[in-house]
Every structure is written in C-alpha cells, then in structure tokens.
Fold this sequence. Notes:
Keywords: Cell outer membrane, Ion transport, Iron, Iron transport, Membrane, Receptor, Signal, TonB box, Transmembrane, Transmembrane beta strand, Transport. The chain is mainly beta and 702 residues long. It contains 5 helices and 43 strands. The protein has a 22-stranded antiparallel beta barrel. A 5-stranded mixed beta sheet has the order 1-7-8-5-6. Strand 2 and strand 3 form a beta hairpin. It is globular and about 80 Å long.
Amino acid sequence: MLFMRYALAATALSTPLVALAADTANTNKLEEILVTGDPMSRSSLDTVSSISIVPEDQLRALNIRDLYDLLLRSPNLNAAREDKFSVRGIANEGIGPGGTGRPTVSIFIDGARQPGRGVANSWDVQQIEFYRGPQSTAFGPGSLAGAVVVQTRDPSHEEYSGDIKVGASNYGGREAGIAVGGPLVGGLAFRYAAETNQTDGEVTNTTLNDDEWQARKRYMQRLKLSWDANEWYSAMLTIQDSKLREGNEYLPPETAEDGISTDDVDGFYDDNSQLWVLSQHAELSDELRLSLIASHSENYNQRKGDYDISDDNNGYFINTVNTENDSVEVRLQYQTAVVKAVAGLYYNSDELVGTSSSIDLPYNVSGMQLRADADLAADRDATTQAIYSEADIILSTRWTLTLGARYEENEAKNRSAFIVTGAELIDPVTGTTIPGDISPVLKPILDNDTSAPSGDDVLLPKVAVSFQINDELSAFFTRSQGYRAGSVDFVSSGNSPSYGPEYTNNYDLGVKFQRGSWFVQGTVFRIDYDDMQIGVRVDASNFRTDNAGEAKSEGAELEFRGELGKGFSVFGGIGYVDTAFVEYEDDGVNYAGNHFPNAPRNTANLSLRYANDKGFYSDISWSRTDGSFIDRENTPTLLADARDLFGARIGYQGDHFGAEIYGQNLTDKFYITDRFNSPSLGINAVYVGDPKEIGARITYKF
Length: 702
C-alpha cells in the first residue's frame, strides 16, 4: 500500500508539468541522448531504470565544478563530503566504518573505474550520468547502490576547436582551464584538457596561526587520442592525471560557524589519481559489434590529522591508502528490428594497501597509562570474473521485454594487522611521559598480523517490461538484484573475522513523457536488503562488520526539463526516500525502525534559465536537502543540517568571447554536512558546507 501511495504521489506531481509542457510545446524537439555507461547503448528515452543525465550546458548553468557540487543539487542524491555520498539513502561507503569491503557506488570516467577523490571535475565534460538504485548486473562490483558515469568530450575528426577560461572569486579563489583538439593525420584525432582551481578557504587555525587552514588546490590533465581510419574499426585512448591538495575539513562544533580550527597538528589531505583507458570497437556486420575495453587506474591518498582537534597534545594520525584497479571487458552487441542484445566477459583485479598510523596516542592497557605509536594495516587483493547478457525483445509495437543476468565470482586475499611501533609510560602525577620504550612488553599482548581468504559467487537476474502508452508517454517496470561481496574485518580479538555478502531485491516503476522540447521522468522504487553489511567501531584499533537481518529503502523521484518559451527554460527534480532497518539487533540494542545514516528524506532542485539570440543569458537555481542522522543509533543531537542553497549566474557568450559573474550559496547558509563522533577516540568534530562564493570568469572559444 505504501508503494502504491508513492506511485500516486509521483503521478500527481508530474501531472501539472505534463500539462505545462502541452501548453508550451513548440517546434523544438527533444534530443535523444545516448546513455554512454549503458552496455546496451540505449538512448535516454529507452532506458528501463532511473537515470539522471546532466549535459554540459546544464553543468555550466548550475556552475558545477565537480561531482560534489552536483550531488548537492540532484534528487535522491546527497553529499556529506566529497568522498562520502548517498544514492537513494544508501551511502557509497556502506553503513558505518570497518571492514575492507568494496564501495556501494562505482564511479567511472570514460570507462575506467576510479576510486580517487576530486577526480570527477566538470571541465571539458560532455555529460554526467547518475544511475540510481543497484547496478550490479550492468556495472559489476561496487555498484549495489548505483553508479556514476562521467563522459568527457571526445576528439573531433572534422575540425579544430578549443576552450579557454580564467576566473577569480572571494576567499582567494582562482581558476584556469584549456581544452583543445582536432584532426591529426591518418584518421587520428586528439583532445587535450587541463584545469586548475584553487581557494584559500575561509577557516583560520588559531593554534598554528594559519589563515589558509582549509586551502584547496586541484589539478587535472587529460589526453584523448581517437583513431577512425576505416569504416569497421575505431579506437580511443584516454589518459588522465588529477591531484588534490586540501587542508583538514573537520572542525570543533563550538567554533565551526566562526570558521575557526584549533588543531595543534599541521594536517592535510593529498590525493593523486591516474587512469588509462583503451576502447576498441569493430563493426563485424550491420548487426554485430565487438568491443574490447581495457582500463587501469591508480590512486594514492594520505590524510594527516589531529585526534582531538584541539591545542592539547593527545596524538595524531596519518592514514595512507594505495589502490590499483585493472579491468578487461569483451562485449558483443547484436541488433535487429526485433532484438537488441549484449553479451560480455569481464575480469577485474583490485588491490588495496592501507595503513593508519597513530602517533602519541594515549592508551590504557591493563591499568597502565601510556602514549603509544601503532600501525593499523589492511591489505586486499581481490579478483572478479563475470559473464553477463541482456536483451531487449520487441514483443509488439507497444511492448518490450528486457531479460538479463550476470554470473559473478569474487575471490580475495585479505590481511589485517595491528603493530605497536613504540610506547612510553605516562607519569600519573605529572602527566608527562617517562623516558624508555616499553613496546617490547606490549607487542606480545597487542600485536596481531593475520591473513584470511574470502570469496563467493552469485547469479543476478534482471527482468523489465516497458510499454509505449502513446507517442508521448511510456512506462516501465524493472526487477533486479544487487550484490556486494563479503570480506574480512581489520582487527578484532586477535583474529580476522569474515562477514558475508549482502543482497538486494529491487523494484522500479517509472513513466516517461516527451513532447516537443519537454522531458518528464517519474519513478517509484523499493529496495529490500538481506544480510546488510553494517560497520561498527569497537575502539581505537578494532572494527567489525555485522550482517544485519533485513533493511529497506523506498521512495520516489521526479525529474523534468523543457522550454517555456520567449527564451526561458527550466529543469529540476524532487526526491523522497524512506530508509529503515527492519531486523537488526546488536549487543542487546534493537535498531529496527531506525533510519540509515546520511539518508535525507526529501531532496529537490529547480533551475530557471533565460537566453536570447544576442548572447545574453542568466540562470537562477535552488536546491533543498533535509537533515539526516549520521549514526545507526539515530542520535537526535548528531544530525547533518537541512539546507536550502541558492545560486545565480549572468553573462554574455558571443561567437568567441564570453564573460559571466556567478554566485553560490548566496544566502551564506551555514550548515553541517556530517559529523565524526567517536568516544573511543575522543573525537567530536563536524564537517561544514561551502560558504557564499562570488566570482567572475572570462572564456574564449574557437
């Protein structure tokens, strides 16, 4: 009954928009956009799931610089931080800390799986696609909650073109970018893009007297080479390198709104990412196309931070993670007037090496007060092999049946370790350390280094039915299954306990309306979890992962875009999600009925654009996100804030030169996006959203 109420609500919301579209329909026809991440190569109008496709002009209208900006302004998507976000209430990191498991949302850039932070900026990007809901059948490991596909601009074989931009904003913001490309020789073409954007930030560290405490610097370079010398074979090579340098994001709750940090440790966050993708396509016949896609990505990130975020000396940490990902996919596509199908083989190798070093951290061991240095390490060497197939079968002029399945095998070698590297006793009278390393005494008690394998296999079916109601209105129903492999926890009670995979059953019911320049899409959904993985921090050096009994996520989303006439256009969306643990008890506490962390119930966005034939344009935008809990206990005092964010842009774009001024968070709304509260570590910190930004940029196109 609740599911039906969502369906009726979505229909009621879409009715006024459909009527408006009917009244304002003009000769501008809606362009069918190719969904680049879909192995079936469907158009946006033929997909049988909820997908947001954000083209380049919409990215510019919203002044989107990276994935984080866009996650703040899309229905049923929410970003707590740049590398912590949720889709339909399901966090990309999973629920809670712990374990060495894969993420729940995969990010692809030009076909390469990319784990890094700050890698998905919007410069020279053709479109970004958000796949809501489990995508395990199409995208494989790490896609239980969804997928993000970034398609950058391809080289042109016909003409040379380029873009240049420079800009500046408050808080010492500055940006510059260049993109240029065109034909070379012998069917070869290139596209080169580079960008940097930087800010000094608005936070001052009063302990270290640093007024650029949260300075951020981004760098990106990308080269694409395309070869298309004959009618049957083409290839594309993509190479990208990105770097992020950033100060520590979390702040004391009592001084966060004033932009004051009190850390006594000079912290930072560094992230380096590289990717290589080679895509090859052979047109075997009018019906058959063979593709080979090989990718390699590397990511190195390191974070240094103060444990107690104060001027007291209570230790600090250095977290380092190295990841490498290699994948090869062979894909055969077949298309006739009745059947459109794809079948593929997939192999993926995923390596992770991580350490968390604690320095001068106070410990209590068997009544002894001491300061210790220790390393918590986690290594994972995982492989995935899969075979998959999907087909659209045209049953009649109105009905299409979609059948799909994926068989996947996952294996991993896991290592976890806790190693004491140094320790000194604390004098209980003076509070100072007593010279002399006592780590040889502690190592037999605390040290632990174990390895354990993990692995499982799964068959994931998918079935969908779409119905063309009339020339302008269609509907679809999809049932699919999601999956995330099991793994092994870091360190717990001297061993490496394993935890099992988690599964979802997913139902999407959607409608799509198209008329003239208008497109409206509404979807209601339900996701039922079995054996949901929930991470729990036991203490400073121990984690564990539970397999909860049952959980669910259900709701609806509505998106629309179209021309209003007289130069005006609009796009926006509404999202609603209700999450809950259905069956989950831990240490005598029943969490049934509690909501997932970082799962705001309501999200919405709306943008109005004006452009005339003389080159002048303006945009205004609004986005809304409800508050949300940050822990499984749903502690009322530990909430991420609700926020309404407003932006605007006004400018001129001629044949070559352009100029604009813009504003983000125009009301200078202070809001907390996430909290880090850990009594075992003595940390109580908050993450806050970006303040008001006013800036200007100049562009040149050729």
